[in-house]
Every structure is written in structure tokens, then in C-alpha cells.
């Protein structure tokens, strides 16, 4: 949205004019997105959106005040400063006072592709032509999105810190359906030229063709084979509920007091790693701290949560570089998850299943009980019986309810290939496919 120098000048202007010696930090983030939505085998909407937000946080004694704006002229900046100062003076004393750093080990990060930001609606339409043609040939209706985006983030504070990051993302997601069944596939990369739209289209069409006229099936405990799209729900909810230091220290995390314990299977190793080549992470957090590669689980043993400056000080630890914009009552959480792979292919995971179910992906996933890591959700866009190591008939969707303690203890095998999947809570997850025993489907459905 803005040139690097202009953003730095904007943040400098935002911080200038405040009372002398007042601790303050300014954060700017912008998002430029080009998106084509399609349904019924044609493009329904082309959208271009650009927005930027400037946020100022000031500390007046033991009180914090914050304000935001998306106009950046001189009058708007003065109004932003007055609003933040008024908020601080009217607020209550705050425990999470700012800890301002004057420097960052990795202050800049560029991982953007200009071709991705400038990808036009005409280019998206040309790429989607094959999707619509295949859908019509098969008698399917296709729907989904083709999105390209660029994000910019910069921060500065009254101690002299300045950090800046640029990144780009391209996502293609498609559903193929008939009245009797559906299939889905999705791919996400840093650059649009890494997307294989034709391959994703063929995968969704293949699942749709196989998913026609599903038959009823009983709920209960089944062995399941899950591709990466389904695995990412499990990983992200485990990370969100379990690995943030705020909940860990408050005793509201299911992992509180269990550091160093064997909680999951020995084949489970999970880390937060912004530098993984498939991810598009930032090397610094929103407190200006360099992100560390953090082992969360190693061979099933819970190693540690992630910390920001405040929780690290409280726990006598060092920040791992996972702070978010303040004021932040939720504390830190991991954003760049990597689940270590195994040795098998997805076909071998299926071949090793005598009687089980293959699930394309999940939706409506949500928390039942955070203290037992219990979550629930529905299957979607293709569930198939596995008989004697081969995919068999399609079956109706099922509701499931599982404890993530049980899920990550019951993993029998992991695929050797890892895939980047987008996450509901932001960031990304690089995960393999899994075969898991005794997955609890809590009720059946009629569709």
C-alpha cells in the first residue's frame, strides 16, 4: 500500500508531538487484496480492496490508552494522539504495561511477489476457464475463490525501534458439487505462479465424482485417514488452546503444570517456526522481539508454551517473540505451526487401513471443553469408507467430538509429504496426512 520510507515517516509523525518522555508505540498494517468469487461455473464478483490502519498506544503512568485511524493527514494524526491520551487518563491501572525495546535483531522482512499483488481479474478469469469447462463436462457446479493479496506491517516506538515486513499470498479454493454429493480442494502459496489451478480443479472434481449418492453409516469410533486439510483443524485448535503462555500461567490451559510430561504419542513433534520455507511468517513480533523457533512438543513430550515480553517477565523466562499488539488480554500464541512428517505416502496410509473412513476436510470446528482439549465439528465434501486398504463407497457426513489428548495419542502413522494449509486464527500450518485410530464420531447425519 505504501512505500517503505513513507510508512516510517508516518510512524515518526504519529509518535512526535506526544508529551516528552512518554512511552508510546505505533503500529501500521495494510492489506491489498484482489479476489474473484465464482459460482455456478462463472465468475460472480471481482473485488479489489486496499486498507490501512494506524494504531497508537501511549502509557501515562500506570495506564495505557490506545486509538486507531485510517486517515493519515496531519489533523487525523493529532486527533489520534488526543484520543489515545484521553483514553489513558480515563483508564484503569494496567498490569501489562509496555516494555519498549530499542532494537530488533531482524527488523525488516521482504517475502512478497509483485506479480501476485498485480494479478488482474482477467488473469484470474483465464485461469478459471479450465475449471468451468471441466465442471460443465462432468455435470458439476463449481464455486470458490481465487485470491491474491499483499500485507504490510510496520511498527515504531519512542525508544527508537523500527520494524517493517512485506508479504504476499495466493489462494485457490474450489468446490465441485451436484445435488447428490460434493468435492473440495484448496492450495495456498506465497506467489500466484506457484498455484496449480488445474491440479486443484481435477482433485475437487475427482472427489466429487466419487462422493455421489452417499449411504448412511453409524456413528462410533473409527480409524480415520485424514489429509492435511483435515489435520490442520486439529493442530490449530491444539495450539490456540494449549500453547499460549497467558492461559498457561493463569491455569486456564489444559497444559498448565504439565511441562515436560509425555502427553501425546511418541510420533508427534510440533514446533512454531516462522522460517519454514512453506510458511510466510515474520521474523519479529509486535513487540519488536525476534521470533524464535520454538519446540512445542517433541516425541510426544510437552516442551514449552510461547511467551511475549509480559508473560516472559512474569514466568522468569525469555520472550520467544510471539507478542501481539497491545493492549492484549489474550497473550501470545503460536502462528507458524509445523507438524513433523512421517515415512508413508497418503496412499500407504489408506492401504494400511482394513476398515475405516477417509475424510476430505472438516468444518464448524469449535471448542467443547478447553480444559480437556475437547473439540467438535462436522465432516464435509466427501467421506469414504475404506475397505481392505482401498477407498470404497461414499458415506453420509458425521459429527465428531474428540479430545485432542486422545487424538494425538492415537496417531498410527504420518505421511512424509507436508502441505501448507491456511488457518482460521491466522498464520499457517505445515502438516502431513495422518492415520488415527478410535476417532470418535458422535452422531450421524442424513446427508
How is this structure best described in words?
By secondary structure, the chain is of the alpha+beta class. The protein has 10 helices and 18 strands. The chain has helices at residues 4-15, 74-90, 114-117, 121-138, 197-210, 228-242, 245-250, 309-315, 346-351, 404-409, and strands at residues 24-39, 42-60, 63-69, 108-111, 141-157, 162-178, 181-189, 220-226, 270-272, 294-298, 301-302, 336-339, 355-369, 374-387, 390-395, 398-403, 411-422, 428-444. Strands 1, 2, 3, 4, 5, 6 and 7 form a 7-stranded mixed beta sheet that branches. The mean pLDDT is 93.
Low-pLDDT residue spans: none
**How many helices does DSSP assign?**
10
Oligomer state equals single chain
Helix content: 10-25%
Task: Write down the overall mean pLDDT.
Answer: 93
The assigned structural class equals alpha+beta
How far apart are the first and last residues' alpha carbons, in Å? 45 Å
Taking all Cα atoms into account, the compactness measure Rg is 24 Å
Strand content: 35-45%
Main pleated-sheet profile: 7 strands, mixed
Number of strands: 18
Written as H for each helix and E for each strand, in order along the chain, the element string is HEEEHEHHEEEHEHHEEEHEHEEEEHEE
Question: So what's the overall shape?
Answer: globular
Secondary-structure topology with pairs:
Layout: H1 4-15, E1 24-39, E2 42-60, E3 63-69, H2 74-90, E4 108-111, H3 114-117, H4 121-138, E5 141-157, E6 162-178, E7 181-189, H5 197-210, E8 220-226, H6 228-242, H7 245-250, E9 270-272, E10 294-298, E11 301-302, H8 309-315, E12 336-339, H9 346-351, E13 355-369, E14 374-387, E15 390-395, E16 398-403, H10 404-409, E17 411-422, E18 428-444
Parallel strand pairs: 4-6, 8-13, 12-18
Antiparallel strand pairs: 1-2, 1-5, 2-3, 5-6, 6-7, 8-18, 9-10, 9-12, 10-11, 13-14, 14-15, 14-16, 16-18, 17-18
Helix pairs in contact: 4-5
